[in-house]
Amino acid sequence: MDTAEIIVTLSGLALAGFVIWYFFFSARQTASAVSSSGGVQQVDITVKGGYSPDVIEVERGKPVQLSFYRDEENSCSEELLLPDFSIRRDLPAYKTTLVELLPQQAGTFTFTCGMGMLRGSLVVK
């Protein structure tokens, strides 16, 4: 192996390591829903290169209102999927999109962008 092949191989390994760390080991930001006077659990989520917060805790059996503010034009983040709740929403750039649901069972439910690259979790207790 010559020097160029070694550099390319090491660069590829470093990139693969970064991707694995980013998707599986990077710090996650958790938020618990705040209940309004009407009993609706509310959470504000910013969409910019990911979801912030990306872990949302709510209570089972109480209505939930998720406010997604998309603070970018990246095409990856233009669609939101919550497959366990049969929800699909377009997220227009620089606008807030409300998603309402009523979680009936406890568990951890994944939400993603349309491409599956941006991920978050809805934890129902």
What is the secondary structure topology, with strand pairs?
Blueprint: H1 3-24, E1 30-32, E2 34-35, E3 41-47, E4 51-52, E5 55-58, E6 64-70, E7 79-82, E8 87-90, E9 96-101, E10 107-113, E11 119-124
Parallel strand pairs: 1-5, 3-6, 5-11
Antiparallel strand pairs: 2-3, 3-4, 6-9, 7-8, 7-10, 10-11
Mind explaining what this structure looks like?
The protein has 125 residues and is of the alpha/beta class. It has a single domain (28-124), classed as Cupredoxins -  blue copper proteins (Immunoglobulin-like, Sandwich). 18% of the residues lie in helices and 42% in strands. The chain contains one helix and eleven strands; from the N terminus they run H-E-E-E-E-E-E-E-E-E-E-E. It has one helix spanning 3-24, and strands at residues 30-32, 34-35, 41-47, 51-52, 55-58, 64-70, 79-82, 87-90, 96-101, 107-113, 119-124. Strands 1-5-11-10-7-8 form a six-stranded mixed β-sheet, with no helix packed on it. The model has no long low-confidence stretch (mean pLDDT 88).
Q: Please identify, by name, the CATH architecture.
A: Sandwich
Write down the Rg.
18 Å
Mean pLDDT: 88
β-strand percent reads 35-45%
Q: How do the SSEs run, as a string of H and E? A: HEEEEEEEEEEE
Straight-line distance between termini: 55 Å
Please write the CATH class name. Mainly Beta
| CATH H-level homologous superfamily name | Cupredoxins -  blue copper proteins
| Helix content, binned percent | 10-25%
* CATH-defined fold name: Immunoglobulin-like
| Total number of distinct structural domains | 1
Q: Could you say which structural class the secondary elements and strand pairing correspond to?
A: alpha/beta
